[in-house]
Amino acid sequence: MKAYPAYWRPLAVFFCLLLVWAGTAFAATLEDKVIEHQLANGLRLLMVQRPQTPTFTAYITLGVGSVHERSDERGVAHLLEHMLFKGTETIGTTDFAKEKPLLDRIEEVGSRLDALRPRRDADPAEIAALEKELAALQQEHQQYVVKDEIARIYAEHGGVGYNAFTSRDLTTYLVSLPANKLELWAAVEADRMKNPVLREFFTEREVVLEERFRAYETNPRGLIFEQLFANAFTVHPYRNPIIGWRSDIENLTLAKTREFLQRYYGPINTVIALVGDIDPPAAIALVERYFSDIPPGSPVPPVTAVEPPQRGEKRIQVTFDAEPQLVMAFHKPTLPAHDDYVFDLIDLILGQGRTARLYRSLVLEKQLATSVQTFGAPGSRYPNLFVIAATPRHPHTTAEVEEAILAELERLAQEPVSAEELARAANRLRTDRLRFLRGNEGLARMLTFYQSVSGDWRYVLTYDDKIAALTAEDVMNTARAWLHPGNRTVVVLDKGTSQP
């Protein structure tokens, strides 16, 4: 480990105390500034007024993700993310009254085709005839479709960053707009929640299949992590990819997709954060006016599947025509468990930045790897994994890289982390978080994430104090408890003679 000069130690203590004060002051200020409001239908609104610039960021987060899908609807949350960009009865169409009968006919033919394809006794001629009819109907339907109209509306009114993402734990839609466009945002998003139209379903399903092909089936990184999660978890639905397995996507029906939407995409599971140049009383009035008449929907039930303790190493070999890669994962608890806080420190100590132990040892000193990183995955709502990923530097092997990683993990479990290294990791956590929260988008994301995943955005208020209380002994104890061979899943990707 690098030796620090004697004069550094009092400076380190000073900066540590300074950052503790800054984090504590920020938490106190944030607690005062977050304004909460809950509608009668369950929708929760969180607001922070920041008038420095005449803009605001809006995050709409639904506490439903791929972890909440049943076995016959895997991939539906991700598909719905695509579908909800398609518009409503008034947005995304040239004439919904004329479009609706055609949509009904497309659904009828497409549903017949979906029911027929899996049957062993299906008549190929009948399938071909239905496919031809569906293609003709979809072509006819294009005359009524206005592509990307929500994006166009926002862009024409100064919107930026319009996007969405689906995770295993939640689904989020976001945009930043000028301050005087709050009512436009409320009208568009309430309409999308009230009157979504799942137009172009069958063509979009093909788009998602192509996305899966590119991101997982022919992408070495996607493939290796898909295998990691599928093997590390045997019971818990975190084992399934967000996008779904290929057969899942192929068998997602329009009826199942609509039912999932109507069941969960309602106010009872929704958190909205508005951060920026807003007038909170006026914002509350607008949200009440546009969102209060939407039916609440059904609360997302908790996942009852509990991953059993792992009782021995799992090792997977993946053959793929790509450069060798190594990933390993260890089961760990999630927030608000004590060891989850410790893992945030371990992540910084081992894998974040050029001074981190793994990077310094494997990349800079021994030159065994071209890259190494650590992170928590694949979700945060339920117990998850601490992941280490590395790419060997030719001519070194994955076995050499693995041996070096395991030596660093053993060192972490047996030798106390120095006071300087511990302080540096804690300070980095604070500064990174404070930097992230300076922007409206970062704060909006944090508020909706913790409200949805932990049940209360106030989790962040005590975070710095929890981290500051951790000791070198906590790091050793957590490493011993979780970073051991019996709790480990290893996936090695090596070149083969042919691709799968």
Number of strands: 11
Q: Which regions contain 5 or more consecutive residues with pLDDT less than 50?
A: 1-23
- Radius of gyration, rounded? 25 Å
Q: Whole-Å distance between the termini?
A: 43 Å
DSSP helix count?
A: 18
Determine the strand fraction and express it as a percent band: 15-25%
Mean pLDDT: 93
Helix content: 40-55%
The biggest sheet, with number of strands, parallel, antiparallel or mixed sense and barrel status, is: 6 strands, mixed
Order of helices and strands: HEEEHHHHEEHHHHHEHEEHHEEHHHHHE
Shape: globular
Strand order in the largest sheet? 1-2-6-3-5-4
Structural class: alpha+beta
Would you mind describing this structure in some detail?
The chain has 18 helices and eleven strands. The strands form two sheets. A six-stranded mixed beta sheet has the order 1-2-6-3-5-4, sandwiched between helices. A five-stranded mixed beta sheet has the order 7-11-8-10-9, with helices on both faces. The chain is 49% helix and 16% strand. It has 500 residues and is α+β, with helices and mostly antiparallel strands. The chain has helices spanning 8-33, 76-83, 96-116, 124-141, 149-156, 182-194, 201-217, 220-232, 246-250, 254-264, 280-291, 338-351, 357-365, 398-414, 419-438, 440-453, 463-468, 472-482; strands at 35-38, 44-49, 55-62, 160-166, 171-178, 270-276, 314-319, 325-332, 369-377, 384-392, 488-494. The longest helix has 26 residues, at 8-33. Helix 1 (8-33) runs parallel beside helix 15, helix 6 (182-194) packs parallel to helix 11 (280-291) and helix 14 (398-414) packs across helix 18 (472-482).
